[in-house]
Amino acid sequence: MNKKALKVLEFYKIKDIIKKFTATSAAKELIDELEPYNSLYEVKEHLEETNEALSLLMKKGSPPFEGAYDVREGISMAEKGFTLMPLQLLRIANIERCARRFKDYIHNREDEDNLRVLEDVCVGITPVKQLEEAILKAIVSEEEIADRASITLFNIRKTLKDKTTSVKDKVNSMVRSYSNYLQENIYTIRGDRYVIPVKSEYKGQVPGLVHDQSSSGATLFIEPMGLVNLNNEIKELMLKEKAEINRILGELSERVYDNIDFVKNNANIVYELDFIFAKAKYASEIGAICPLVNEDGIIDIVQGRHPLIDPLKVVSMDVYLGREFTSLVVTGPNTGGKTVTLKTIGLLELMAMSGILIPARENSTVSFFKEVFADIGDEQSIEQSLSTFSSHMTNIVKIMEKADIDSLVLFDELGAGTDPTEGAALAVSILENLRKRDTKILATTHYSELKAYALRTEGVENASVEFDVETLRPTYRLLIGVPGKSNAFEISKRLGLPDYVIDDARSGIASENLRFEDLIQKLQEKSIRAEENSRKSEILKAEAERYKEKYEKKLNGLNNTRERALVEGKREAKKIIVEAKEEADTILKNIREMERLGYSSDARAKLENERKKLKEKLDKAYENEFENEAEGSSLTKVEEGQEVYIPSLNMKGIILSKPDNRGEVQIQAGIMKINVKLKDLRSNKNFKEDAKIKKIKKREVKLNLKQVDSSIDLRGMDAEEAIYSVDKYLDDACVGGLGSVIIIHGKGTGVLRNAINDMLKKHQHVKTYRLGNYGEGGSGVTVVELK
């Protein structure tokens, strides 16, 4: 992409704003390097990643970038085997923690929205939690190593603390002893050694080592001989502490080196995510949307806004190009918004092609262009002795050399700065030449000749910026399909120019031109209204189709889920029946064995009768299950290609052949081709839902009731809340079949324990209770045996 267009269309200003939303300087550099992508695939992928990030921002709030820093320098040093400083290690740990949390942020969500691109980005994250925790455990802050970083460091600091206390006590004693010779009754530190301020005339009265003197020379800072050994010991401990800290930092740096590939990769992914979410935060700031993208040169921006204009003042515009026409000629008065229109279209195109969402309405469409050219603004150059016209023509020459079918060209005041007749003829020739190349063009002009050119040339359309004659102000609305009306006479009249002057001016203009201007005014409202209604209808139709497709997918998903749940429920019910039948047969077998050992024949007859009744009841239930499973419309005839349901396989299939002489048809079921009897097929699966679902839910409740914890923790509750919680818990434990449970109430003042014991005395489920033994929690718990 040519740099001139990026600069003229103020793309760099957009990047500067996006950089404010980043957390790391590495992401800022990625934004500095951002330019329109070179393929349609890249454009769509990067727009999609930004849109996914915006969706996450809306649903889950800010991403976990806390503590994210640019650690490229630290990683580079670790890669070369250097020992890192505490600040560098701490920042590496923070960015690794950020990467790990981001993986959870992406994957742990309740919605089912597809985040394909972001998930692909995050799939490369490899958490190094052990390294992260080791650094955070050892380093408290940017300049402080934790005591718990190693046992050796802990012992050194403990000894150092004891020695420091001893030396302070001793130096305080010496201050009192030598108080008559001291400048002040205090002690101080010079070079990590404790000293006392002695008056220079009494230096012989305090034996020791002189470390410093005051600026006036009246005070000497002497280390008394009685402190020398203690100070030496403290100095040795401080050196040991420093050596141990260096050892710890070296060890942590080595662990970073051992995981350098993971550390570097995770950090790069965090930088990329920071870059993506910066674009998403900017999109949220300006109310942007993800546009549709094509490579057919079609632009259809609905209610597009220039992102650098105050949102309270900006006027949205509808612009379309590339279907019925490939060139758009915009006319209108000065300060009417023509240049802003060009810059808006050009900037929105550049933003979209760079993966940045655009401020417009949903369903807006942009096109992928290999090049965007812009000749906008006064580029007069004194240094190069170029006039305005010459500078514009120099730029236009370069555009004419490179523009093709994959280019978008923006011309502001094409042909201006020279003789109007020649300038208009030149402008028409330039536009016609580019139109024949099928280049997409937006051009502004004041020349009437270009209006006529647009009216008579296929593939070229007029447009204008609206002007309110009543208020003498532009409305900044773009009107496509209608050339601009000059309004010079109306404006002059409202500003006070005499009527006779205006009449003389009118008489100097050909009647055809006046009629042409009047025709423009009459066509304006009708054309605009019809065009707006047509485009709104297309947009609403597209939205309706999208919503229809979305909800059809959801409906199909719900139906499939319902069918699977019902089938699984039936299978579970059959399994229960089979198990119950087997158990009943086992019980009856045992009864017959007992009967053989001494029951009378009458008792035997009664047992056999009861066994038959039980067997009949189970067989009936079993048959009902099969009958229910086969429910659905039976088939008497089928057609090739018809979709059917196979109850025996719990699958759907497609009919491949008509029934043969044995009544079998061939069916494609998944990857298999099978023969199935016609009578065993169903047209659909209509289950009797209510009773079965209730059975399944009832069984699920019973299963869940058995999953009761063996203890309950009441710590932090007041007596009333604790009694309510224990009562409910004992009910659940009893239903769940627990024999004994533990109630944790803590020791404390004993108020909570007494309240619970009073409640247990009268509880219907409690058989006995006692305080915990040694190893069970002691008096902090109560062990309850249930009935």
Number of H- or I-type helical stretches:
22
Spell out the CATH superfamily of the largest domain: P-loop containing nucleotide triphosphate hydrolases
Report the average pLDDT across residues.
81
Query: What's the count of strands?
Result: 22
- For the record, what CATH class of the largest domain applies? Alpha Beta
Using the alpha-carbon principal axes, give the shape: flat
Share of residues in strands = 5-15%
CATH topology name of the largest domain, in short, is: Rossmann fold
- Major sheet summary line: 6 strands, mixed
- Strand order in the largest sheet: 10-11-12-8-13-14
Query: What would you say the CATH architecture of the largest domain is?
Result: 3-Layer(aba) Sandwich
Show unreliable segments.
Answer: 380-385, 685-706
What number of domains?
6
First-to-last CA distance: 82 Å
Q: Helix coverage percent of residues?
A: 40-55%
